[in-house]
Amino acid sequence: MQCDYFDAGRCRSCTLMGTPYADQLDAKQQRAAAALEDVAPGLAWLAPAPSASSHYRNKAKLVVGGRTGNPTLGILDERGRGVDLRRCGLYEPGLAATFGPLHRFVSDLGLEPYDVPGRRGELKYLIVTHSPDGEHLVRFVLRSDRHLADLRAALPRLVADLPSAQVVTANLHPEHKAVLEGDTEVPLTDQTLLPMRVGDTTLLLGPKSFFQTNTAVAGALYRQARAWVDDTDPAVVWDLYCGVGGFARHATAPGRTVLGVETSTEAVDAARAAAGQEPDAAQFLVGDATTTVPSPAPDLVIVNPPRRGIGPQLAGWLEASTARSVLYSSCSVDSLARDLAAMPSLRPAEARVFDMFPQTPHTEVMVRLERR
């Protein structure tokens, strides 16, 4: 992948830029294997699941900089000034196609970009999610509700210019801190969930829902999980940290009970809506994956925690449980190695790298564990 922004030194986010993609993938495989070598000697590694090396991102988190009437959409430099990255080669083409209409809309509406060094202004971020069917979820992250009425009044203009914008919201983020969003989400469209088709399954994403940034590789991850679940053929499956239900929905089968647990009420509501009246539909509960104990007891548990991992409490529970199998999907091989060491009765049998983020060293790994 060649990038003018990288070559000009305007953006260095892609730290592996210039490294041949095959070498990137090989290095990620070696890094994952080395991290797990002590806790999983002899672990069988399947071939890595590759990605397109460019145009793979389904989500853009664009910092709004510049000035009123002429904003930048991209990142901030070391001095807090906006760097426009609308031609970044990581975004799916359908996602990149939204940047022009959104830039025009923000410019014409006169929304003042938030000036980080000066702590003034209103529009902090534009967050855009692109579905495989060409639809979009657009979020305006604002410092206050000052421009909510203006956004509502101008929404028909945005939809006319960008008819793929099916879900539009405003997020209110009044604090000056390095987090992406605030607690308050204000829907601006009647539709509040974006259908996200992954293979033969359609998930529903709300504004704050987590979904893998690489749709194609997410599909490979879910298919691998489905294959491992079906090989084990459990009667009861728990999906902890289930989000909008990607793993749970792929684990269903006739006569099988599948339960998903997630702290986000919004995500659980979306998962329930997507599952609907499917035969053998998964069920979803709002709860903390580390403390919630639904019933019946599981034969197989899927965990997909944040970067910090599942931690000692849940690892200890899994170690002492009657679950025969665990599928652990991790975005950090270091926390994964620590958690596996805390579950010695669960033997790592197979593992696979899923390359969600080409051009970066980030690695997603899924491991199948079996009770010794």
Task: Provide structural commentary.
The chain is an alpha/beta fold. It has two domains: 4-53 and 210-371, Vaccinia Virus protein VP39 (Rossmann fold), CATH 3.40.50.150; 59-192, OB fold (Dihydrolipoamide Acetyltransferase, E2P), CATH 2.40.50.1070. It has ten helices and 17 strands. It has helices at residues 4-7, 21-36, 93-96, 99-109, 148-161, 215-232, 246-251, 265-275, 311-320, 333-341, and strands spanning 44-45, 59-67, 70-76, 82-84, 123-130, 136-142, 165-172, 184-187, 194-198, 201-205, 236-240, 257-262, 283-286, 300-303, 325-330, 346-354, 364-371. It has an eight-stranded mixed β-sheet, sandwiched between helices. Strands 4-3-2-5-6-7-8 form a seven-stranded mixed β-sheet. It has a two-stranded antiparallel sheet with strand order 9-10. Helix 2 runs parallel beside helix 10 (333-341) and helix 4 (99-109) runs antiparallel to helix 5. The longest helix is centred in the middle third of the chain and has 18 residues, at 215-232. The radius of gyration is 22 Å and the shape is globular. The model has no long low-confidence stretch (mean pLDDT 96).
CATH architectural grouping of the largest domain: 3-Layer(aba) Sandwich
CATH class of the largest domain: Alpha Beta
Report low-confidence residues grouped into runs of 5 or more: none
- CATH topology of the largest domain: the name is Rossmann fold
Number of strands: 17
Shape: globular
Radius of gyration: 22 Å
Helix content: 25-40%
| Measured distance between first and last alpha carbons | 45 Å
Structural class: alpha/beta
Q: Sheet bearing the most strands, described?
A: 8 strands, mixed
The CATH superfamily of the largest domain is: Vaccinia Virus protein VP39
